[in-house]
Amino acid sequence: MSPGASLAVLTLAPLFAGLLSLTTRTKRAMEWLQGALVVVLLVAMGLIVGHVASGDDAVVGHLLRADALAAFMILMLATVGGTGLIYALGYMGEELARGHLEQTRYRFFFFLLNLYLGAMLLATTLDNIALMWIAVEGSTLAAALLVGFERTKAALEAGWKYIILSFIGIALALFGTVLVYYASERVLGVSMEALSWSALRLVAPALDPTTLKLAFVFVLIGYGTKAGVAPMHTWLPDAHAEAPTPMSAMLSGLMLNIALYAVLRLKNIVDQAAGADFTAPIVIGLGLLSIAVSAVFMLIQRDYKRLFAYSSIEHVGIALVGFGVGGPAGVFGGFFHMLNHALAKSTAFYAAGLVLLRHGHKVTERVTGLLRHEPATGGGMLVATIALAGMPPFGLFISEVLIVTAAYQQRPWLAAVLLGLLALAFATLLAQVLPMILGEPHDDGQRVSVPTRRFTTSALIVNIIALGSLGFSMPDFLRELFIPMIALFGADVAVEIP
Amino acid sequence: MTGITPAMVPADLGSQLVNLCSMMLLVTSFAIVAQRRLSACVDLFAVQSVFLAVTAALVAFLTGIHHIYVAAGLTILIKAVIIPLILKRVIERLNVQREVAFVINIPPSLLICGALVILAFSVTEPVASIGFLLTKDSLAIALAIVLIGFFTMIARKKAVTQVVGFLMVENGLFLGAAAAAYGMPLIVELGVFFDVLVAGLIIGIYTHRLQDAFDSVDVSKLTGLKE
User: Fold this and answer.
1) What is the pLDDT of residue A493?
2) CA angle, B52 as apex, B50 and B53 as ends, to 5°?
3) What is the pLDDT of residue A348?
4) What confidence score (pLDDT) does residue A91 get?
5) Considering A22, A448, B25, B160, which has the largest number of Cβ atoms within 10 A of its Cβ?
6) How far is CA A455 from CA A31, A243, A287, A449, A451, in A?
7) Distance (Å) from the alpha carbon of A178 to chain B's nearest alpha carbon
8) How many whole angstroms separate alpha carbon A135 and alpha carbon A168?
9) CB neighbour class for A108 (10 Å; exposed up to 12, middle 13-18, buried from 19)
10) Nearest C-alpha of chain B: how many angstroms from A328?
């Protein structure tokens, strides 16, 4: 299959599978359908990544384009999205088997989840700022129904807050997008081309810097709201805690990264037009604020899903600081952080979902002895927590060290502040999660059935293998993607990647 | 408009007409903020959408970029007819009390909105110079409407008023796109319209579910989730 065809298949398969989901009659049929989708996604992703890693963009007309950055996002979306779908088969299948969910709602859940995944894949591959906005808005709409899916009072409240805040955010992002168009049509003319990322990047130095600066502020606040950047993060803990757990994993592991991706694409253009001195302080400031806010709120958290939600805000903040500081180490650190966080946080949520299925509540202190009681869940949560806390041998340790180093080279005080906040977040996360994992279990709960376990455990294992291997070695194809990605952000130094 | 060609309209008259129409959008925004009755808010939103469509049609006529007519037509159909009808039915079915519930009262609300307009003009002032002569002030007006829409979402308690606020924001964005940048390409506009329509539907679904679960659409009662 040609790279262009793979790209088309990759973006259309989830939409197609979503529609087919509505027609499935049995649980078994749904499992085959979603399984087939995962295979298609992974194969198409492999072809695209292989092609882009060899130095060429994958293109479909003027519409879809996968450069190194998009291929990296596709890699993340297909991998975490794939394990997410497998996990969802187990989790929602268990809800169905227990009678908490009707067959029609079960079908509807997968319909929405596939649309959501498809919209995110489209958002990363569309070579057009406005069409990308439409795709991101599409993912927001699907997510809005998924957050409130369980229809409890808490879920509806979380869903309503999510809708209002993310619509405000996304509206600001559209205003920013209009401003970019306002600046670019002076140079490229009133045409589709004036909205194309690849064309914009080429003419960036000729664009009006004042307009782009203003556009960046709108886009950063707008997409930043979707990325859960403080102080626009208030919807995030509610949504992550109340959404069905497979969705929490995808919100945290994928959607935050898509929003960051949109900000980074524009930052790339603004930096060329107006110099990096404008965007860096804003991005670093919001990053630090996010880490500080999340560290404090993790300390007082009593709900384990909310705890992991706040931890996501922290990690988005760390990545932002990396991109703000810039340079090869900062940019590489930021991207490597995004990838490892997506893997680690989805693992954490997969485990948290199993705890929720077993105990039926989300109170941290009432859960103990996971490791003894349920080795797969406890082990998964332990590995994820160690990784999220930034301990070696995981990739998040490497990226955090790189970002702190890059920060120290530029502004030593920044490295000190960053390290202090990271230490606080590290301690609170471990102090909160370790008691859940260790000790004696004292509540038996309702055991999860074997068919469920088959799906959930395989999702956990795949994630843990990916997470663990990234900590020890960098695969060649990933190295081939990182080099052009870093070059995209203006770091002309050839980087030595571990 | 038969017989009149864009060349027959002097440039400054054209730009004054566009400015007049965009100003009317701003005036209706203020009227919505000053409104006590829920159904009147919805009516005023429909009126605002008509002004938006007229502005877009003027820009299309004066510039000869014909696809903006499509956007104008869709605005009339969706925002001036379909969405107001849906909202009115929601108001009837939910039997919402007639009064709009306030977080901030009307007089201070109007003052704040006035300040937001000044803010919008000062924020966009440095970039206005690169704009087209025809629509020089529209970007500032568009931003002002967006900000007033946000304010309405924050300062009013009922879910329906928040929806009207959200739709005002969308109108502001459309004014920004249609006037200040002479319209986005057609496929983009269609996509945005589709999104707005689906967003409206989803908000409608949520309002129903909130009513069922909480027996109210007063979103100030949504306080279960907090630290």
Assistant:
1) 45
2) 65
3) 96
4) 95
5) B25
6) 10, 20, 36, 11, 7
7) 6
8) 16
9) middle
10) 33
CA dist B155 → A492, B95, B218, B225 (Å): 49, 21, 12, 20
> What are B15-45's pLDDT values in tens digits?
888 889 999 999 999 999 998 888 899 999 9
The Cα A321–Cα A315 span in angstroms is 10
Q: How many angstroms separate the CA atoms of A443 and A369, rounded?
A: 9
CA nearest neighbour of B71 among B84, B56, B83, B91: B56
- Residues in contact with A191: Cβ distance below 8 Å, sequence separation at least 6, in sequence order: A185, B185
**Cα separation, A320 vs A362, whole angstroms:** 30
Query: Count of CB atoms within 10 A of residue B7's CB?
Result: 7
Strand partners, A126: A64
Per-residue pLDDT averaged across A103-132, rounded?
A: 95
Instruction: Decide if B219 and A181 are in contact by the 8 Å CB cutoff.
Output: no
B77: contact with A, CB 8 A cutoff: no
Q: State both tokens at A116.
A: 């959501």
* DSSP secondary structure, A236-302, as one string: HHHHHHHS-HHHHHHIIIIIHHHHHHHHHHHHHHHHHHH-HHHHHHHHHHHHHHHHHHHHHHHHT--
What is the Cα–Cα distance from A107 to A179, expressed in whole angstroms?
Answer: 40
Taking the mean position of all CA atoms in its chain, how far away is CA A76?
A: 8
pLDDT at B117 over 50: yes
Query: pLDDT averaged over chain A?
Result: 91
Least confident of A184-193, A252-261, A325-334, B140-149: A184-193
DSSP A47-82: HHHHHHHTT--EEETTTEEE-HHHHHHHHHHHHHHH
- Summarize pLDDT for A446-481 with one digit per residue, the tens: 888 888 999 999 999 999 999 999 989 899 999 999
State the Cα–Cα distance between residues A342 and A330, nearest whole angstrom.
18
Q: What is the ipTM of this complex?
A: 0.89
Write out the two tokens for A424.
């606080």
- Residue B135 near residue B59 (C-beta atoms within 8 A): yes
| pLDDT at A237 (0 to 100) | 92
Query: For the residues A129-153, what does the mean pLDDT come to?
Result: 92
Instruction: Nearest chain A residue to B159 by CA: give it.
Output: A160
